[in-house]
Give the backbone structure.
Amino acid sequence: MTTELIVLASASPRRSELLESAGITFRVAPADINEDALPEEEPIDYVLRLAEGKARASAENESSGRFFVGADTIVLCDGEIMGKPKDRADAERMLRKLSGVAHEVVTGFALYDKERKGVVREAIRTKVFFKQLREEEIQSYIDTGCPFDKAGAYAIQGGAAHMVQKIDGSYTNVVGLPLCEVVAALRVMGALP
Ligand SMILES: Cc1cn([C@H]2C[C@H](O)[C@@H](COP(=O)(O)OP(=O)(O)OP(=O)(O)O)O2)c(=O)[nH]c1=O
């Protein structure tokens, strides 16, 4: 089995870098889908549905490739699902809410086998503990522009590393793709030797 058959259905440079770091050969074919939550939808159901939707949409658009990997990451804080902030005020609100408390980062991923029409889905949760943030820290971090394409308005791998006191669980899951689990699932699917 050749690994060129793996397609990452994501525009996220972080997801590409993570998959590359595992030595996996793949190509990228992002899929644009509606990311609105359904009424009363549970967070886990939401990330799994979007991950599968991205994988299937990419598979439909592409004429080659067999194993399509989709993922979706959210931050869960005190009952709120945080996606990417809409604007500066939203980023400020999210970071103020995360300040000094623990939250969860949930990434759902889906592997869709276009040949067998089968799908494997999994959601991984990581607990992240933030220090108390000073207002100047919040403002200068938002000034960098980093928060705007990140769930919860922060990037643990970037300018927000100093805001994180500790994590409990997978680090790569916070960045956007739980690597151990994704690699294991690719193996189970027969996409990797
Ligand atoms: C919490 C956190 C999120 N993120 C990122 C991961 C995801 O790229 C992003 C959440 O948005 P997603 O909607 O999961 O993904 P995306 O729109 O970037 O890419 P695509 O839908 O094409 O796959 O937040 C970080 O990079 N670092 C972090 O610490």
Remarks:
- The chain has one domain: 3-189.
